[in-house]
Amino acid sequence: MKRRDFIKTVAVGSAGVALTFNSFPMNAFGLNSINAKLFNPFIETDKVLVLVQLLGGNDGLNTIIPYQDSLYYTKRPTLGIPSTSVLTLPDSTMGLHPSLSEFRNFYLDGKLAVIQNVGYPNPNLSHFRATDIWHTASDSNQILTTGWLGRYLHEEYPNYPGQNPPDPMSIQIGANADLSLISQVGNMALTFQDPNQFYQLVQGSAYSGYEKVKTLAGDELNFARKVSADSLQYASRVKQAADNGQNLATYPNSKLAEQLKIVAQLIDGGLQTRLYVVTMSGFDTHSNQLTNHQNLLNDLNSSIAAFMLDLELNNITNRVVGMTISEFGRRVNENGSSGTDHGTAAPMLIFGDLVNEGVYGNNPDLLNLSNGNLIHQYDYRQIYASVLKQLFAATDQELLNVLLSQFNTLPLIIPQSSQNGKQKNKNYTLSQNFPNPFNPSTKITYILKNDSHVSLKVYDISGKVVQVLAEGFKSAGQYSVSFDVSGRSNLSSGIYFYKLKGDNFEDTKKMTLIK
Amino acid sequence: MKSDTGLLTPYIPSNSRPWSKKLVTHLLSRTTFGAKVSDVNMVLTLSPSAAVDLLFQNLAQPSPPGTWVTDPPDYSNGQLNRTRTNELRRWWLKLMIDEPVSFREKMVLFWHNHFTSEANVVKIPQHMYIQNSLFRNNAYGNFRSLAKSVTRDPAMLYYLDGRLNRVGSPNENYSRELLELFTIGIGNYTELDVQEGARALTGWTINGLVSQFVASRHDNGIKTYLGQTGNFDDEDVSDIIFSKPETAVTFCKKLYRTFINQKEDMTYAMPVINEMADLLRDNNYELAPVLVTLFKSQLFFSENIISSLIKSPLETMLGAVKQMNIAINNPNLETKLNYIAAECDNAGQLLLDPPNVQGWTGYRNWLNTNSSPTRTSFCESIITGIKKDLTQTGFSVDPISFALTFPLPNNAIRLVDDICEHLTRLRLTPKQRGQLLLTLLDGSEVYDWSINDPQAPARIKKFLKALVYMAEYQLN
């Protein structure tokens, strides 16, 4: 939905304020403290999308693993992840790479959607062309110079540049801004590596409007001035948010974690930016894949886990959705260098409290391949459309302008109407067990508002069923059951999950046994 | 030669377009890492043609960064390898800074960004040094023979997995990038060509500091590659690629974008690019004739393309050092060079470690809300001598001796105009020059200006700071 109306109320661009830095007079777009008052935070949605880019082409088959398909092991004789170490997922015949233990917890907690076989027709196997395709949301053979996020932000902020929103429209943490964030009117992203350093840097930078230069240099000059103006306008706002925000989780020591830490801090600090892009590289595993990929997924796993915990502890977890993208998956057959060459379709992971959890789509078809590569089931633009529509309430017309064709959506995000506290289905309640932590016994209560078949099972951390607490048809009402580990010496201290499943709902919660 | 009658007609100075400091600075800014005032004055005494020839002068090969460059590779000592990589990086930066009027290091960087390798992936700095020397020895040599050498270069064999590519289990990594990024370009080959090329390229491995062909690892079968069929090897692969006219066109497009202009829509430039490509093929892929013709052309010196490129971080930062006549020497040479390398990194260009095999894409990607202030704050720091963290840079402009390199340092208006021309080439508007003049005068009157005034050094610094803060300074 557009913010035209409230943006219209103040013309920041023309309300230039004269500033003097280092005795050199200059005009600034506006002072941020003034902006903040004028733009009394009015937003139609406070949702935030964090894109996690896995550069190099993540191997989908070794991330979300078809471990029950013997063809997988035939085609991956040395790289196949043994089924015994795959982290199994309840209700799915796919499993997770052993490094993705936290993603498994997200799944059990109902915070992870896996969309299988995402790609597009006539896939391109060049890193750079494929990256451009994903960034611009183009067809395989179509060259576009603007990105999908850039075009979306242009829909939302049609008067930028000139009448600029008070907070950056999007932020990319890093040294570069991606093509995805370029719109018809230029770069829509604020790019920086660290909020405080950024603020320090920008002190004293200049912006002045001058006469037009008629040679080719004129366009470049305008471009350089716009960049400079954006830095100046947003640096103090970003610093302010960074100062207000806090990180309550401990992050691992990695580049991805550093970026996510900043994102969490800025969201918590009240920045109204709704799009963040973070990046992780190294996924081009042509050789020595087992170790390299394991390290990469370990980093991804622990960094995202810290981020999610941070959001939870800061009580902003119901505003933020994360999504991984990668330019392609990898060849089904491993190559001769203990690696995999460039491939095509691959799974995307979407995580957060607002996610409609589950594994979407069929398991990868390892038999019917195209030149040794997987054939896609979902177009990646369907995922873009779903997220823009369900998270940001983009209208159909906006989607058409952004994605240039119509794409069917998948129900990946919980509808706005039921986003509060993730009460997706009001026909049941599953309470937290009491006491928790417990030893040896704890009570679990659930409420059914309609008659339903239910099952209530306890799982250990590896996904194995430890006990069935309820199974069968139940009429509406409140039920309490006890989980008792007396005499079960094989159950050790640690985290367990209990999952309530009904006719059209399911829910999982975590509990801790301390012996 | 076609260029005599074609679009690459030589530039001949005339009354309407005289050979001027501005055109000299333009030439040197595009072909070197920045021009000192003394360089500009010297080149101005030459004809445009002689000036370009001087840029292609033969320079002696520099002595290596250390005796370690011949040590056998040690993959297990990551700390040592990183230390030496930093040493190599400083060595190269120093070469760029100290280079006399020469095009060579600019081309070494061009090749580094074309036949890309990342030191952090290659791991062995000796291999990076060998590759760097290969580029230097062939700076404006033969494109085809350089491509053949790169195919067997140890750093490249490591970086794009050629060493693992063997009969029966091909690895497509190098085969793909050779076609896509290094030669013929996307759209001119098929996925099958990538696979068949990989087979033809099998057999090369790394043995210590050199590459080695292991016949038993080579695929001797029949391959079909870009429409030809035979038992091809790596040399055949290059010969076939270079038999295709598209290869020269794709490469000349890159030359054009690097040295002339990077407008997104290239259609208007295609006639010139095609002419360059013809010239390249007519000269059997020797590069010098093409570049010499290009740099001597009316096109190169036309007003329309002046300052139409965006400087890279290296061009910005080394350029500021050289343009303002700042020497980078001992004491603490290492610290100084590390500071430059680190700031270039912060602005998106860590020498020897491009972001990926595509290299730095440059142009507008150089400038964003992070890199723009990073570049500016570096330039400010070498004017004031103080970094953002308030520590000393150890090197900075000497404002008075810098002013004295201009003809009329005691004329404030001329001094402003001359320094603006030296640092930006774009003619600033009267309003801009007026503001800059006010900055220089700092409240005093024009007729009071004298570089003997005790306030003069501080005022010149303030003026230079204001100048490097202008968007014009980001352009090349």
Structure description:
The complex is a heterodimer of chains A (515) and B (476). Chain A is an alpha/beta fold and 515 residues long. Chain A has twelve helices and 23 strands. In chain A, helix 7 (195-202) packs across helix 8 and helix 8 crosses helix 9 (255-268). Chain A is globular, with a radius of gyration of 25 Å. Mean pLDDT of chain A is 85; it is low at 1-44. With 476 residues, chain B is mostly helical. In chain B, 51% of the residues lie in helices and 3% in strands. Chain B has 23 helices and four strands. In chain B, strands 1-2 form a two-stranded antiparallel sheet. In chain B, strand 1 (204-207) and strand 2 (210-213) form a beta hairpin. In chain B, helix 14 (245-259) packs across helix 15 (270-282) and helix 18 packs antiparallel against helix 19. The longest helix of chain B has 21 residues, at 78-98. The interface between A and B is large, with 57 and 65 residues.
Radius of gyration of chain A: 25 Å
Low-confidence stretches of chain B: 1-5
State the secondary-structure class of chain B: mainly alpha
* Structural class by helix and strand composition of chain A: alpha/beta
Shape of chain A: globular
Radius of gyration of chain B: 24 Å
Give the H and E element order of chain B.
Answer: HHHHHHHHHHHHEEEEHHHHHHHHHHH
First-last Cα distance of chain B: 30 Å
Per DSSP, what share of the residues of chain B sits in E-state strands of 2 or more residues? under 5%
Total beta strand runs of chain A: 23
Tell me, rounded to a whole number, the average pLDDT of chain A: 85
User: Which bin fits the share of residues in helices of chain B?
Assistant: 40-55%
Main beta sheet strand tally, sense and closure of chain B: 2 strands, antiparallel
